[in-house]
Amino acid sequence: MEFDIRVEDYLDDKLQSTTDFDHLDTLLNSVEHQRSQLQSQLDNATKELEEARRSSAERQAALAAQIDEFQKLQQSIDVRLKIVAASDAPDEAIRRLEQPMKQLHKVDLAHRYLLLLQHVQELRNAARAHLPQSPKAALEPYTELKQLSLRLRELQGAADGAAVHLVAHVESVAEALWDEMKKTMWSELEVLLKKRGWPNVDPESEVDDEWIQCFEKLVDLQVPEVLYSPTLVTLLPMDVMAQIFVKEFRFHFLSDKPTSNPQGINAHCFPWFLSLLDKWEIFFRENFAPVLAAKFGQTEVSNKMVYMDPGCAFIASMLPVMREKVNVTMAEAVKDPAFLSSLLGQLMTFDDNIRSGYSYDGGDAENGWEGLTGEVLNTHFRTWLEAEKKFALERFNGIMTSSDARKIDYDFAVVGKTKPTFAAVRVADLLRSVTTQYERLRRFSHKLRFLIDIQLAILDDYHDHLKGTLEAYQTMTSTVGRAFVGVTKEQLAALEGTGALETLCKVYGSADHIINALHDWSNEEFFVTLWEQLQTRAKANEDQSNLAGGMSYDHVKDRISSVVGTEDDTGVLFDETISAYTMRRKRAQEFLTQVLIQNQKKAFAAYLKRPQWSTISDEPTSGEAYYQLAPTAELGEPLAVLKRDLDFLSHALGTAVFRRIWREALEELNNMLWSDVLMANKFAASGAAQFRRDVDAISSVVERYIPDGSIALESIKEALHLLNLPVEAPEENSNTMTLKNAVDRVFTDNTEAKKVLEELEIESLSPPHARQILQRRVENAE
Questions:
Q1: Sequence-ordered list of residues with C-beta below 8 angstroms from that of 681, at least 6 positions apart, any chain
Q2: What is the distance between the alpha carbons of residues 589 and 658, in angstroms, rounded to a whole number?
Q3: Where in this chain does the entry annotate a coiled-coil region (predicted)?
C-alpha cells in the first residue's frame, strides 16, 4: 500500500499537465536507468556479504587450530617441567657456570675501570694543553673531570661505599689538576711581576695591558669556583701580588723579631697592616676594578665587595696571615686576663677599621664580615666573658669599699635635682664602660650574655646593698627590731638630727640615679635593637631550653622582663631591674615622710602642751595687731627642726619629690595642730592671736623653701582666721564681721553658715567645722 502511494506521488509529481505526456519516453528511460543502478548495488552488497561470511568462517577455523596447538604445547611444557623438576642437571649446570660468570663480570668491570681512568687522563691532558694560553678552554675538561668526581662520590654513597680507590683516585686527580692549573697561571703572573719590579712601583701608576691580561686570565680560571663555592674564595691574582707582603708580614710579626711580641700587636702589627691597605688600595681599584666588574658584574656575586672591589680582594688575600698572627697572640692572651681584655677591644677596633674604612664584607653581603673578633670568640668567648666579669666585679667591690662611696655627691647636679651617692654614680659609670666592651659584638648571644652575666649581676648586687640599708634602718628604728637584733649607741647616734634623713636620701638618690640611667639606656639604639632581637628570637624559638647562649626562655624572662616573647611592645631590657629599684626608691620615700612626721611630733611636744591659750591679755589683738606678736617661746625648737629638715632635703632631693614628701608631712602637721591645739583648748582673743602668729611663723619657714608649700596648712590657717574674729568691730571699719555676729549666723543654719564662710573667703571649712571652731573661743564657752 505504501509502495503504491509512493508511485502515485511520483507520477503526480512528474505528470502534472498534459504536456508532461510528451516526455513520457524520457521519463521511462530515466526510471529504467535508476533501476539498473539499484540492481547493480544490490548484487555487489550480496557478494560482499558472502565474502565476509567466508572470511569469518576461515578465521574461526584458524583460531580453533591455534587454540588446539597452544593446548598441545602447554601439555608438552607441563610434561617437560615435571621431568626437569625430577632431575638435578640444571642446578649442576648453574653451579659450573657461576665461577666463569664471576670472572667475566670482573673482567668487564676492570675494562670499564680502565676506560674511566683513560677518560680521566684524557681530561687532565686536555686541560694541561690549554695552559697558560687559554684558561677558559682549560676549564671545560677540568669542569667535566670535577663533575665526574662529584658524581662518583654520589654513586658511591648509594652503593654502600663501593669503589673506594677509584673514587679517591679521581678526586685526587681533579684536586691535583686544579692545583697544577693554578700553579701554572700563578707562575706566569709571578714572572711578569718580577719583570715589572713589583712591588717597587708607583702606587699611583697605571699597569700595562700585558699585566691586565695576565690578571684577567687568572680570574677566568677562578670564575666557576667563585660562583659555586659556598665559602669565600680569595682571588688568585691577588694572592700572587700579596705574597710579597705576606712574607714581609711574617718577617716582622711571626718571627723572633721584637715586633713579633704579642703585647705589641696593637702598636706595630695592626698599624702596619692598615697602612699597607691605605698605600695600595687606590692602585688596585684604579687598575683592576674594570676586570672584576666585567667578570662578576652580571652574576649572583655582584653584590659582594670582595669580588667586585680589588681593594677588598687584596684584604681577603692578606687576612689569612693576620688571622695566624691573631691566633698566636690569643694563645698568649688567654693566660693573661688583663691582656686578653685589652686585646679583644683592640681587635674589635681593627675589625671596625676594615669594615668602615674599606667596605670589606668578607663575602657576606647580607650580614657583613664577622671580623677576626668573631672567629676568635667562637673559641674563647667564655674565657673572655669570665675575665671581664671578674674585672667588673672587682671594680664594683672597689667602688663599694671606697671611703666616700656612701657619701652624697652634692656637686653631681644643680639645686632642684636629686643627688645620688658617689657609689651610685660610679656604678652607673662602670655599667656604661661594660657596655662599651661588648656593644660592638655582632653575635646576639654574646651580647645577651654580657648583659645578664655582668651588668645585671652588678645591678642585682647594688640593689641588694640598697635593700640591706633600708632593712638595717628599719631594724634600728623599730621597737621589735631593736629588741631582737640589738642596736649600738653609735648606730642610734648616727640617726640623730639629719642622720636618718641622710641615710634615706642616700638610698633614694642612688636608686633614682640608677633608674634614670636604665631608662635612658633603654631608649638608646643599641639596647632598643638588642630588645627587638630578643623579642624576635623569643617569639620564633621553639626550643625553650636554649633561647640564646645556653640560657633558657624562663631564665631570660626572669632576668630581663616578664613580657619577653609576648605581643606586648612596651617592655625594655631592664624592666625587672627598674621594677626592683623603683620599690627601693618608693620605700625610701615612705621612710623619709615618716621621719619628718616623727621629727615634728618630737619637736612640737612641748608646744602642744602650752596651757596659756585661754589667758586673757590686755594687749590689743584687733585687726592686724597679731603680726606684731613674737612667736611662742615653745615654737623655737619646732621652727629650728623644721628649718633644718627643709634645708637638708632641699639640697639632697629633686623639687618634685621634695614637695611631695613635705606635702604629706605638713598635712600631718596641720592635722596635729588642729586636733592637739585647736580642738583641745579654749582660746581667748589673745591666745587665738598668738596661735595665728605661730602658724604664720611656721608658714613663713615653709614658704622660704617651698613656694606655695604652706597650702598644706590652709585648713588650720582658715580656722584661725575664723577663730580670731574680733569681739567688737574696729572704729575705722565698722562693717567688719564680729565674733558675735558670726556665731549668731553660723548657728542659725547651714545656708547662713556657708554665707558667713564665703564673706570671710574661707573655702576649706564646712559649717560643722565653723561651729566647732567658734566654740573654741572662751566668749562662747556656754
A1: 613, 614, 687, 776
A2: 10
A3: 28-62
Q: Do residues 512 and 542 make contact, with C-beta atoms less than 8 angstroms apart? A: no
Q: Which three cell numbers stand for residue 25?
A: 519516453
CA distance 320 to 254: 13
Give the mean pLDDT of 141-164. Answer: 66
Grid cell for residue 671: 592635722
pLDDT, position 72: 81
Distances 777 to 270, 441, 623, 722, 725 between C-alpha atoms, Å: 92, 78, 17, 10, 10
pTM of the model: 0.77
For residue 620, the model assigns a pLDDT of: 47
pLDDT exceeds 80 at position 116: no
- Write the pLDDT tens digit of every residue in 440-450: 999 999 999 99
pLDDT > 70 in the chain, percent: 83
- Within 10 Å of residue 151's Cβ, how many Cβ atoms? 12
CATH number of 604-778: 1.20.58
Who wins on pLDDT, 288 or 557? 288
Give yes or no for a contact between 467 and 584, defined as CB atoms under 8 angstroms apart.
yes
Backbone angles phi, psi at 436, to 5 degrees: -65, -20
SS3 for 408? strand
* Residue 368: Cβ within 10 Å count: 15
| pLDDT tens readout for residues 396-431 | 999 999 999 999 999 999 988 999 999 999 999 999
Q: Which residue ranges make up each domain of the chain?
A: 25-85, 91-178, 196-368, 385-489+503-570, 604-778
255, 262 contact by CB (below 8 A): no
DSSP label at 260? G
The phi and psi torsions of 583 (rounded to 5 degrees) equal: -65, -40
CA distance 638 to 628: 20
CB 714 within 8 A of CB 667: no
